[in-house]
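INFO batch 0412 | record 1 of 1 | parsing
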Amino acid sequence: MQKQINFGICSIKNYVKKYKEKNKFNYDKRHFWTMHIITSYLRSRLTEAVNLKSKYNVEVKYPKELWRLYYKELKEEKWYNKKVMGGPIPNLKKRGEFYKMLWYVDPAYWSDLINAVLGDKEIIKLIKTKMSKRIDTCRRLVEPLKIEYEEHWFPGSKMDTHLEAQNLHKVVTEKRHRDKFSPSYLDIRKAPNWNTIKWEMPDWDKKKLKRLKWLKYIKTSNKRWRKMMPDYAKTTYKLEDPNIDDMRYQKVTTWLLKHDWYEGKVNQFKHYTQKNINLIR
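INFO prediction complete | emitting tokens
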């Protein structure tokens, strides 16, 4: 009798554990869409926040070594414009957008530069007084996501941009959703088998020929870039050729916070800390 009771208790415990895991890692697309739109919101807010440095000409004190490396890399913008972008583009320094200037810098320094800006007292004050309203960020954000929503996430569905903006604003402002704005919630690596979560692209059979042509174009482009690329940039831009399965299946990690951009040089969790999330949210 005792054994039967113990067996029953173990079964209940296992059921409760599985139930909690199922709720924590809900594998339907709606769950990952929520993670994606929160991530997109945070990226938008982060970009606006660090651009306050350029907009209001704030002198940020970087660590001495970082300061030297930062300006050394900025000198390479001429190469970046002509070789990486394939032609002349607007001078990003003249546009005064600090976040875009990071593309001239070795990605290994991105998080350090961002953290230095967000830790500056004057920038913190500007974030609290000059940042866009949350609802305005939500409205500005959902429109560019409309195509992704209708073609990749929920094929055949129409996105109500007004409703989606309102829903996002609720997630941002309501206390019951506070746990969603944390590095822990947005870390896809905490889900079991996180790197295998994917789904087939919509209308794969109908668009296969078109995507094969696009694949050929990417390989040709990569070949050209490898010939022009200087040695110092080859560790950052690997330019590996994709295979057909890379285009057939869309991995959910494509849209979420990444820890492995540029061969691991950019770890977004270094600048999407809880402190920074609370600041820009």
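INFO post-check: The first helix runs from residue 2 to 24.
INFO record closed
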